[in-house]
Design a protein that fits this description.
- This protein has 358 residues and is α/β, with parallel strands linked by helices.
- It has one domain (34-297): Spore Coat Polysaccharide Biosynthesis Protein SpsA, Chain A (Alpha-Beta Complex).
- The chain contains 13 helices and nine strands.
- It has helices at 5-27, 40-58, 60-72, 92-99, 141-156, 176-184, 190-195, 213-217, 245-253, 258-261, 273-285, 318-325, 344-355; strands spanning 78-85, 106-112, 160-167, 171-172, 202-205, 242-244, 290-292, 296-298, 335-337.
- α5 packs across α9.
- The longest helix has 23 residues, at 5-27.
- 35% of the residues are buried.
- InterPro entries: BC10-like, Glyco_trans_14.
- GO terms for molecular function: glycosyltransferase activity.
- Its main location: membrane.
- It is found in: Membrane.
Length: 358
């Protein structure tokens, strides 16, 4: 057996190199700031909330009695609008006009980052804020916030049968009536809507072909997602969606995939958990029940640092609204993003005569 000190030095070098190669990504300090991590306390707190929401919805006997009672009062199913924001809700006047006259057909829930500086809240959003926690772009905190919104909406009102996630930079492209009838069709009475829930489709982008798919999959480490999420099951899509209630409950019940997607990323430039988790989960659970396309229009032609094109005041016109509505699916787009805050005035000028005239 060699006894030369050079041999032992070489062996030590090889051993350390192998350790670095195999375990380095897990032991080296992460470049992500601490806010990107989900603390154990926050995770347990959320799990308790999600469990309460799923238990509330799963009691068939209670649901039956509620539906039966509500049907006699001519109640209708509702759409829960989930606003995920980290800044001012500057487009509140547009949304206020969108919702006007339909008070019994929707609910609003807002998750505002605690660090966000909000000016005086528009009356549309007063008392609509849920208990929120810190969020950060390109981190699992955005997944948690979306799940938190759905859980609160399910607990708040059993009539919430669709859940539309939007941001502070989103605007509606149609009237509320157009959106409502497009989702529920003729099943506008609560009894019919509840009995046909299994047929309600979710509108979420699910893509299996993306030039950066492999890099995104390996953002947490080459083999970290295994065995729960093999590469061939990994999907990408839009951060914003409209989920049917049964799919919202699937999201809240999930523990298996969340265990993987809540892990911090090593490659932050390919880490967009909120664009991966929901498409992957729903593609694995119920691909036929999802549209595989989004109803929120986004312009990625000249994106900057992962952000889509931001429309400014000079671009706002009736022609733009009509263009943004156009899609390749059976539905036209319902919403669009991303708009700069100073677009509010030109948008309000064309709201009643263009945006809300279908």
């Amino acid at each position: 057996m060699p006894s030369s000190p050079y041999f032992y030095s070489f062996a030590l070098f090889i051993s350390l190199s192998l350790l670095f190669f195999l375990y380095g990504p897990h032991i080296l300090p992460l470049k992500h700031p601490p806010t990107s991590h989900i603390s154990i306390a926050d995770d347990l707190d959320d799990l308790s909330l999600f469990r309460n929401a799923t238990l509330s919805a799963s009691s068939s006997r209670a649901s039956s009695s509620k539906v039966s009672h509500l049907s006699f009062s001519n109640a209708r199913p509702k759409i829960a609008f989930l606003f995920l924001t980290n800044s001012d809700l500057v487009f509140a006047p547009v949304w206020s006009q969108f919702f006007s006259g339909n008070e019994r057909l929707y609910n609003i829930y807002v998750h505002a980052d605690p660090s966000a500086k909000l000016s005086d809240t528009h009356k549309l959003f007063q008392n609509r804020f849920i208990p929120a926690k810190r969020t950060e772009r390109a981190s699992p905190t955005l997944i948690s916030a979306a799940r938190r919104l759905m859980a609160n909406a399910i607990l708040d009102d059993p009539l919430n049968l669709y859940f539309a996630l939007v941001s502070q930079s989103c605007i509606p492209l149609h009237s509320f009536r157009f959106v409502y009838r497009s989702l529920f069709g003729n099943s506008i009475r609560v009894l019919n809507a509840f009995s046909t829930q299994s047929k309600h489709k979710s509108f979420i982008e699910i893509l299996s072909r993306d030039p950066n798919l492999a890099e995104r999959y390996a953002a947490r480490g080459q083999y970290v997602m295994l065995p729960e999420v093999p590469f061939e099951k990994f999907r990408v899509g839009s951060q914003f969606f409209i989920l049917a209630k049964r799919h919202a409950l699937l999201v809240l019940k999930d523990r298996k995939l969340w265990k993987k997607f809540k892990l911090p990323c090593l490659n932050i430039h390919s880490c967009y958990p909120e664009e991966h988790y929901f498409p992957t989960l729903l593609s694995m659970k119920d691909p036929e029940g999802c549209s595989h396309y989004t109803l929120t229009r986004v312009n990625w032609t000249d994106s900057v640092d992962g952000h889509p094109h931001t429309y400014d005041t000079g671009e706002i016109s009736p022609a733009l609204i009509h263009t943004l509505r156009q899609s390749n699916s059976r539905y036209s787009y319902f919403f669009a993003r991303k708009f700069s805050p100073d677009c509010i005035k030109p948008l309000m000028k064309i709201a009643s005569k263009v945006i809300f005239r279908d």
